[in-house]
Write a structure and sequence with these properties.
Number of domains: 2
CATH class of the largest domain: Alpha Beta
Oligomer: single chain
Structural class: alpha+beta
Number of helices: 10
Strand order of the largest sheet: 2-1-19-18-17-16
Strand content: 25-35%
Shape: globular
Radius of gyration: 24 Å
CATH topology of the largest domain: Beta-lactamase
Length: 412
């Protein structure tokens, strides 16, 4: 008797059919589409190209934030120490991305500094610009240079005050030149402002400081200098910064690149000072955390910076999902979940996903969008979802619409 073997028939689950239908949108034709969904126990509910490495954009901030939270703990607060000597001011900074102009100005007033003494700064890191950042981004606030000692997240604003240009909170060595259109060159330290400003008060733009550590030093003295040593005696004043938990909340909902870079370097500088170029060491330490602590497969995350501004970052959606699962099992889970962007609240999710209760992280670069986080599915169970789209031809808003439809499909 002969046997007739019939071809196997692949039966797709209703959820798979529904999510496949969303991702097969014609707008995604030719794009790289990667997605991953699991329950909180790690049971995979859906995946598509989940082991394909893609550019994560600002989803990279999830890795930097989780690393800093693990490395330093949620209660860690940086201490910026200031010594006042007869002939100089010395500052030791471990990195405080939330240090403000007003706080440092108040410290200068308490120490009765007249800005006449040279300032020597011993800072844990000062790479300037993140690795892989594109030149045209550098004048903007979102690409502000990174240094442990800084103010206002490395940025300043240019205002039109009753028809006259003004740099606030201060000029910090940047000169105003009148011209035809608004233009800023941080390397020449020159901002061109139109000559025909209307008689009104309005912020024109927010720009990156040429050097955050130099600008901060100008509030204490003059002649900024670097040093690798700090005095052995007690400092005249210590500025205690806000905890890591608040840094995460200031970073993730608005997707602040400067804070994200600080979080990566604060986490990496815990045990010993970082070298002049801190990024190679920081990448190694972040990779160790992801592979040995979170236990992600080697190569699932290839980090390059802390914020995702660089297109050299590569991740898989499975890695993002497994990081979210790991973070949810830690003693700091409440801190982690509280720090994420949420629908209906200020941040990058404020106008997305309608009434769906979603907490997580968005990401946008040219031809890149990403969305990852936690939500409740149609059965009321919390699931983890990550979707990253690369190399699409449509607009970013249309690609985000595909992402939103994917998340909505999980709740219907």
């Amino acid at each position: 008797m002969s046997l007739i073997l019939l071809p196997a028939i692949l039966v797709l689950s209703p959820l798979t059919e529904k999510l496949d239908s969303v991702l097969n949108d014609p707008k995604m034709g030719g794009a790289t589409v990667a997605a991953y969904v699991s329950d909180l126990d790690g049971n995979v509910l859906y995946e598509k190209n989940s082991r394909t490495r893609v550019m994560p954009a600002s989803n990279q901030k999830l890795f930097s934030s989780a690393f800093a939270l693990w490395s330093r703990g949620s209660d860690y607060r940086p201490q910026t120490k200031i010594w006042k000597e007869w002939n100089r001011i010395i500052v030791e900074s471990p990195g405080d991305p939330l240090l403000t102009y007003d706080t440092l100005k108040e410290a200068a007033d308490k120490l009765e500094l007249d800005r006449s003494l040279p300032v020597y700064v011993n800072e844990a890191y000062a790479p300037g610009y993140g690795g892989g950042w594109e030149f045209e981004d550098l004048p903007n606030k979102y690409a502000a240079p990174v240094s442990a000692f800084t103010i206002e997240r490395g940025a300043f604003a240019i205002w039109n005050v009753d028809g006259k240009p003004k740099l606030l909170p201060e000029a910090f060595g940047v000169k105003i030149v009148r011209g035809d259109t608004l233009n800023y060159d941080p390397f020449a330290r020159r901002v061109i402002v139109p000559t025909d400003l209307p008689n009104e008060t309005k912020r024109l733009d927010t720009l990156s400081l040429p050097r955050g550590d130099e600008a901060a030093s100008m509030l204490l003295g003059r002649w900024f200098n670097r040093t690798k040593e700090s005095p052995s005696n007690d400092p005249a004043l210590i500025i205690v910064g806000r905890p890591i938990s608040m840094m995460l909340k200031a970073c993730l909902p608005p997707s602040d690149n400067n804070i994200a870079e600080h979080l990566l370097l604060i986490g990496a500088s815990k045990d010993k000072p970082l070298p002049e170029d801190p990024y190679p060491d920081a990448r190694k330490k972040l990779s160790y955390f992801l592979e040995s602590v979170v236990q992600l497969p080697a190569g699932d995350v290839i980090p390059y910076d802390g914020s995702g501004l660089s297109k050299e970052n590569l991740v898989t959606t499975r890695a993002i999902g497994e990081l979210l699962l790991w973070a949810n099992r830690q003693p700091t889970a409440d801190v982690w979940r509280d720090a994420l962007a949420k629908t209906g609240q200020p941040g990058t999710l404020s106008k997305r996903l309608g009434t769906i209760e979603f907490s997580g992280k968005t990401g946008t670069l040219n031809r890149v969008v990403a969305l990852s986080g936690y939500l409740k599915n149609k059965d009321g169970k919390t699931v983890v979802a990550s979707i990253v789209l690369n190399n699409f031809r449509c607009s970013s808003s249309e690609a985000q619409g595909v992402e939103d439809s994917f998340i909505k499909a999980l709740t219907e």
